Amino acid sequence: MSISNPAPVKANPSPGEVAQSSTGFVEHDQVITLYAVTGVFLTLAVIAVACRAAVLVLKRSRGGWDDWTTIFCLAPTAALAAVTSVQANSIYKGPKPDQAPFAWLQRILIETWVIQILTITSLYVFKLSICIRYLRIANDLYDWFWRLTMAMIALLSAHYISSFVTWGVQCVPARRYWDPSVPGSCIKQSSWILSVNGVNLATDVMVLVLPIYPVAKLRLPPKQRLAILAIFTVGGLSTIAGCLRFYHLYRFDRMIGSLGANTLDIEIWCFIEITLGMFCACMPAFRTLYTFCRYGRQKPWTPEKTTSQGKTSESSARNRFNFLSKNKLAPKILRSIQASGFDVEPDIERVYQQNLDGIETTRGGRQASIGTSLTATETGSTSNKKRPYESD
């Protein structure tokens, strides 16, 4: 989100008035801050994605959906950094002496339109990547976690599609957004923008807290607990950045403080939120890359993740989509979402499965062994119970 109603500019400003507007709308230090933030955080995002891609190369893996969505997220994020920097420079300098003020205003509004499209796309893609990765730890025990993750993906997709379409047709024709002289109509932008960003902030929180319960149940060594804590910390910082972005967006909408300062603050915190989210999505790959650099190829890179019943967790994960294929309720592309990611860094799901293999629950005369299948013993009789989605 960026500026949509810049301060009015006189039709024929003098050079002194142009200079005054250049330093009065936004300060030079604010523009430099935006340049520094976008440069530093874009570099961090590129390094994180490069590490994730390096893991795929070292393991000779084609990657999964979560890997490719994260890599794709670099494109709109880099474009967002470029357009934001160009717009900040235009706002700071104001219209050129030989440039009509209306043409300057049109350029800013066009850049605003592009920035919003890139923003909602980047936010959606990195959260989608994180949710797809959550499916890796959605093993047989926690069916509710798998269902909640798929529901979260559906919610994110519906929110993105509705936001994208609404922003594209908020003015009919679209040209009217940056050229009020064109006949047409526009929706009320202020309330719509606040509601869209409010829902986006809510999804940030939901994506962050979704895996807390299943991860908290893991029995992990201290180092791995610290690693998971670091991932959640970075995710929390991204959510905090989203809160600050919404705060400055509210100030912008209510015309509180400097219009130009609020505009740059919105863009700064938006970019921090996106890049920290990408960094968080790539953090699990850092350990694999570190292990390779330290031990070389002496350690196995694609171990079989075997359950207590002798089945690999990859096959178990594929079974979750069997009930979809039998009933022909989902296309092949949907059934491949979870299974495609199992050839990449398997630390979380491997540890998760190891924990499940050692769990035995006893209640009264009923003893349940939790693994890829559920075996119940009551009054000396034993029977195997299959889940509705497991194949025969």
TrEMBL record:
It is a multi-pass membrane protein. Residues 369-383 have a biased composition (Polar residues). Keywords: Membrane, Transmembrane, Transmembrane helix. It comes from the Eukaryota. Residues 52-290 form the Rhodopsin domain. InterPro entries: Rhodopsin_dom_fungi (IPR049326), SAT4-like (IPR052337). The chain crosses the membrane at residues 32-58, 70-92, 112-132, 144-169, 189-214, 226-248, 268-290. Residues 359-392 are annotated as: Disordered. It is found in: Membrane. GO terms for cellular component: membrane. Belongs to the SAT4 family. This is Rhodopsin domain-containing protein. It comes from Cercospora beticola.
